Amino acid sequence: xxxxxxxxxxxxxxxxxxxxxxxxxxxxxxxxxxxxxxxxxxxxxxxxxxxxxxxxxxxxxxxxxxxxxxxxxxxxxxxxxxxxxxxxxxxxxxxxxxxxxxxxxxxxxxxxxxxxxxxxxxxxxxxxxxxxxxxxxxx
Length: 139
What we know:
The protein is of the alpha/beta class. Helix content is 45%, strand content 17%. Helix 1 (20-31) links the parallel strand 1 (7-11) and strand 2.
């Protein structure tokens, strides 16, 4: 089997205009050897799902600081699943209360990262998830 890079879509859904963290995590994931597509600010869940499908990504990482995480994470997850991408990890970060983290994870969202998390932690999580779930996929 030919080894391939993990493809990650980093997206900023909603009206949040602060993207420094998303850019930092995108660079960190690239430094960890992943192929990263960054969509920029103010993306709709529909646009994110369409881009994920078009780019054939393994992971969608959402950065949400606006407080709309309980709407945006589930909407993106549902659209990804409706597009038949059941094997795509939805993860991300932002300022998310622990009770909301637990509820989102119960819906099928992966690990969520808060402020102050070392960027390498997200890269390690994605790499471990990929090895456990996608590494045997056809190239």
